[in-house]
Amino acid sequence: MLWEDDDVSKEVLSIIIPMYNEEESLPYLYDRLVRLGDKIENYTLEFLFVNDGSSDNSLTMVKELREIDARVCYLSLSRNFGKEVAMGAAFDYVNGDAVVIIDADLQDPPELILEMLKYYEEGYDDVYAKRKSREGETWLKKMTSKTFYRVLHTVSRVPIQQDTGDFRLLSRRAIEALKSFPEKQRYTKGMFSLIGFKKIAIEFDRDPRVAGSTKWNYFKLMELAVEGITSFTLAPLRISTYIGIITSLCAMVYATFIFIKTVIYGIDVPGYASLMCVVLFLGGVQLLCLGVIGEYLGRIFIEAKARPLYFIDEYSGTSVDIE
Length: 323
Ligand code: UDP
Ligand code: MG
What we know:
Layout: H1 2-9, E1 11-19, H2 26-39, E2 43-51, H3 58-68, E3 72-77, H4 83-93, E4 98-101, H5 112-121, E5 126-134, H6 139-155, E6 164-171, H7 172-179, H8 188-194, E7 199-206, H9 218-232, H10 235-265, H11 272-305, E8 312-315
Parallel strand pairs: 1-2, 1-4, 2-3, 5-7
Antiparallel strand pairs: 3-8, 4-6, 5-6
The structure holds uridine-5'-diphosphate (UDP) and magnesium ion (MG).
């Protein structure tokens, strides 16, 4: 039949949804995805829900959705691995010619995908959504996030897009490139930049979460920040070297000063305060530099163990025809 031939020639658009305890947002999300699906006629859709070890009903709900909608697929990880790993797993299983990553909490409006597709059809490999505003997030979070990206941008040679999350459309070749990264400690935002290819930004207003609560806390964000910096640049190591050089130079100048002073005026016993300052300061600097080296060493240790990135508990299989 004619329409069947038509179907085969259609490209596949996959939407990856990492979810961790998102039972409250899921109905809203599915509703919006269905409405979006009605507007997309030229693509075969695949909604790949990645269950990142949710302890609530998220997976059951997705399974129910799959029974009524064949476009819904799911990949369930054996425990909570974090969003970065969940995305990594999804890249391995996704079938789309074009792939969109979207949060389950509707902070990224699915309607934007229509606009992303336009650019994809023009030949862009990475259409990323840049936040014009972030509603429902505290002033402190916006401020710290902005400062972090500034710092990262300054210290790493790879341009990292500012005010950009993981909400983006990637072409098949971009996905293949991302799959080839073997690292276990992933900082996906940086990887998007590293792969290169044709990129374009589209701007949007980030909505507040539709339901449920954020899975991030300041401790986790801090970890992600350290991850971002140490997996992307050797700048902290270099900075330690510079601090070392500068303190040595200062020490030499001071030593010369003391030597001359002693030769001219003889030895005077006081000097406890200055001695203490120098010892404490140097001790501090040394510990700091050791910490920095330790951070990188730890990373090498983890990578050297080469443990598997994730384990799959269940995969629904896709409903999309793959040759
Ligand atoms: N998420 C996940 N694993 C986690 C934490 C979060 O898959 O360990 C998912 C979460 O369900 C959501 C997305 O990642 O779809 C973004 O998380 P969240 O909304 O908590 O982050 P925020 O938007 O506050 O940065
Ligand atoms: Mg969110």
